[in-house]
Design a protein that fits this description.
One of its GO terms (biological process) is methylation. This protein is an alpha/beta fold. The chain has a single domain, classed as Rossmann fold (3-Layer(aba) Sandwich), CATH 3.40.50. It is 31% helix and 30% strand. The two termini are 28 Å apart.
């Protein structure tokens, strides 16, 4: 496939994507996806669009609770010549007969005690109170096909709760990768692959460092060269 820039409209006064979505997309593509895929909490659509751009065979569906994001998603799908089924709904209340082979998400994961702004769009996109972890995992589990796979990232401080919740919902953590700002910093993010109704062992991947010696790491540079993004205000 000939590489081309990925055009992404973003809200000037709302939540804007960051490197977490790029790192998660790279992780998912390396692990593998196919068939029916649902992107939960799509925002401007960056995660689903990246996955579809680099794997045209997936059948992409996207859901977000905010009407303003629907405008962004539809614009970005059109700009990048991508087809997807788009839903404006609360994921926790979402009803469909369809089951998915894959569910992917960069969900809101900041805790209640973290500082909230006066911008509701940013708050909904960032804070876990709008999509609690246990409810998110439970709903994802109910919408996955047998042996379906959930990919998501989350703040590493919640790792113990993630393990307990996945176990309770009979989702087996099969791959994890811890993301650090650099080798001297504690992990801040964890990338997770969890499979439904399997007994596989859990593979702990090498840590991902965003920076090395004050510069972008080689891994991060590779991601930027793979996902050539061009953003503009909408």
């Amino acid at each position: 496939m000939k590489q081309e820039n990925i055009l992404l409209a973003q809200l000037k006064d709302g939540y804007r994507y960051n490197s977490d979505s790029l790192i998660l997309a790279d992780f998912i593509l390396k692990c593998g996806i196919k068939n029916e895929l649902l992107d939960v909490g799509s925002g401007c659509g960056i995660l689903g669009i990246l996955l579809k751009k680099f794997n045209e065979k997936i059948k992409l569906s996207m859901i977000d609770i905010q009407e303003r994001n629907m405008q962004l998603i539809k614009q970005n799908l059109k700009s990048n010549h991508i087809e997807a089924e788009v839903f404006c709904d609360d994921f926790l209340n979402f009803n469909t007969q369809k089951k998915f082979d894959f569910i992917v998400s960069n969900p809101p994961f900041y805790r209640q005690e973290a500082y909230k702004s006066q911008n509701l769009h940013k708050n909904i996109s960032k804070f876990q109170s709008y999509l609690p972890l246990d409810e998110f995992i439970s709903k994802a589990n109910s919408m996955l096909k047998p042996r379906g796979i959930l990919y998501f990232c989350y703040e590493v401080l919640a790792f113990d709760k993630i393990c307990v919740t996945l176990e309770k919902k009979k989702l087996k953590m099969t791959k994890i990768c811890f993301v650090h700002s650099d080798k001297n910093e504690k992990a801040r993010l964890v990338l997770i692959e969890a499979r439904k109704s399997v007994k596989s062992f859990c593979e702990i991947l090498p840590p991902f460092f965003v920076y090395e010696n004050g510069n972008l790491s080689q891994k991060m540079q590779t991601i930027h060269s793979r996902f050539i993004l061009e953003s503009y205000d909408f």
